[in-house]
Amino acid sequence: MTDVFGPLPSGKKVERRPDGPPIHYLTMLGSVLLLMLTGVVMVLSASTWTAVTEKGDAFSLFSRHAIYVTIAVFALLFAVGRDYRRWRRLAPALLVVSAFSLLLVILRGQAVNGSSRGLDLGPFGFQPSELTKFAIVIALASFLDQRRYFLDRLDRVTIPVGICIAVICGLILLQPDLGTAAMIGFITLGMMWAAGVPFKHLGLLTTPGLAVGLLFLFGEPYRMARIKGILFCEENIEGACWQTSQGLVSLANGGLKGTGVAAGHAQWGWVPEAHTDFVFAVVGEQLGFVGSMAVLILLGTIILTGFRTAQIAPDVFGSLLAAGISIWFLVQVMVNLLGVLRLLPITGVTLPFISYGGTSLIINALAAGLLLNIARQSQ
Asked: Is the peptide bond before 314 cis (omega within 30 degrees of 0)?
């Protein structure tokens, strides 16, 4: 009998554990479902003003979000019931589809706030960069597993990964979407570190990545405006700093116990994108510090149990896959929260399982289901 860290010592007895789902599986599943339920309530409360002004129907955005949540639950159940090992066969196809979709976005994408990040599919939109995260994690876990005995070889591991990620991130930067490209870079570095790639090789990937990121960061006036909005907020309180300053006001208004659901000022248009990027400001105002901490605990539970699953997964592929998904969720949560707290520029990254957003919610649920399947098979 073996585990991900090698064979057990000869003669060592293996204790049989009682049948039934592991406790970390049940904990993770409960956290995901509770966050989705919280998201339904918060989106209903936060989207009312936007729905009335843009659609003329107070429940138009909520109705669409309810459809997204329903699809996300089915995606979650599908991934939970499908052996995670089957996904590695789909890794090349998922990468090709993701790259082709990203190219279509550049050529015929739907422009929103100056960026073409989605494809118009009639009644719904599709954001290929979300699928790309999912594809990258599966493909990278499979590749690193296959070449786990050559992790110290530049030509066998680091260079091929660097070329692939450079192409994918290049397509995303042309949308332009610097935030998602940076997230994919962090996920890649985290998975390679977890696999055991030497630090000096990771440095070879990090240096050009940082150089390109800084070039794009300082090359666009609107990105510089966002940075100045963080550093010199008082000088532009009604301009670039308006969204973040109003988000902080909402968090402060919440106090300890909050103003109550459907109360507060964030939902009435004072906080732009309150139902998407800044849904945590609505959580903080309406549910208070207690509710905010509950949401953070649930998110932290998913991430920590995900890393625990990576430690006890049945095989190396499962271990790297669980680590990759956990790093993905960690980075996404941190980028969103730091943006709301005015510690990072606003990037348009959603809060997992809570924010409004069809593709993001469904793909996150699919990734969570994949993580749950690994947890269910880990004893």
From this structure: no
> Could you tell me if 262 and 286 are in contact, meaning their C-beta atoms sit under 8 angstroms apart?
yes
pLDDT tens for residues 188-246?
999 999 999 898 888 888 888 888 877 877 766 666 666 766 666 666 666 666 677 77
pTM for the full model? 0.87
Determine which helix (DSSP H) or strand (DSSP E) holds 111, and give its type and residue range: strand 110-112
CB 345 within 8 A of CB 182: no
> Greatest CA span in the chain, whole angstroms?
71
> In this prediction, what percent of the chain has a pLDDT beyond 90?
33
Give residue 154's domain range.
86-219
Q: Are residues 76 and 167 in the same domain?
A: no
| Residue 8 forms part of a structural domain | no
- Is 11 part of any domain? no
Nearest alpha-carbon partner for 223 in 181, 176, 187: 176
**Buried residues in 11-25 as b, exposed as e (16+ CB within 10 A):** eeeeeeeeeeebebb
Residue 208 lies in a domain: yes
Least confident of 25-29, 209-213, 264-268, 278-282: 264-268
Q: What domain count does the chain have? A: 2
Same domain (yes/no): 51, 111: no
The beta strand positions in the chain, using DSSP E, are 2-3, 6-7, 110-112, 115-121, 124-126
260, 294: one domain = yes
What's the pLDDT tens digit per position in 270-286? 777 777 788 888 888 88
